[in-house]
Amino acid sequence: MIGAASRFGRWSFLQNMPRRSGRFRQRRSRSTGAVPSKRGPETMRRLLAGFLTGSIVILAGSYITGIEEGPWGSAHARSDLGSGKSFLCPSPEHHDGDAIRCGSKGRSMRLYAIDAPEMPGACRSGRRCTQGNAFASRDHLAALTKGRSVSCHVLDQDRYGRKVVRCFADQMDLSCAMVHDGYAVERYGKLRC
């Protein structure tokens, strides 16, 4: 017989490893070859029932609500809105004629496909800014949303990281109303009013 080292060849370090005894060996099912779980069947049933119940509750809740309150309301504390989400906008605030912020929290969002006059000092050199009265544009947008139910739908994100939204105040498209009333111009998209 040749030495034990030659039996393992270049894997000679294996000769010093302990052999697997019965207590370390996992028993497998003869029919399926699967290793049995250490949990009993009743525990597995409870885990599965809990998982399925939780999944059904989450799916049903998201289906029933349809429109969310949004990331700025008390019901949701999410900072990330994916594209295509609709939400209610409580207490809208406006910095200028083409921006909306829902409540005092959160970030300003840009209204889709319009450009309104910039506030004094906001138009950087070399940029083509819309002419007009920025204060009148902002005040007109505030008048359009005051006392109305405002809902928005996320369409995109601009180069500054703001959400681009299409908002409606009692079924009236805010972007279309601002262009129609002469307080903004159509830019950065195509409006269908």
Automatic annotation (TrEMBL):
Spans traversing the lipid bilayer: none
Instruction: Give the region (Disordered) as residue ranges.
Output: 19-40
Q: InterPro entries, per this entry?
A: SNase_OB-fold_sf, Staphylococal_nuclease_OB-fold
SUPFAM superfamilies recorded: Staphylococcal nuclease (SSF50199)
- Annotated TNase-like domain residues: 109-186
Q: Which domain of life is it from?
A: Bacteria
Residue ranges annotated as compositionally biased, kind Basic residues, are: 20-30
Q: Which protein is depicted?
A: Thermonuclease family protein
- List the source organism: Sphingomonas crocodyli
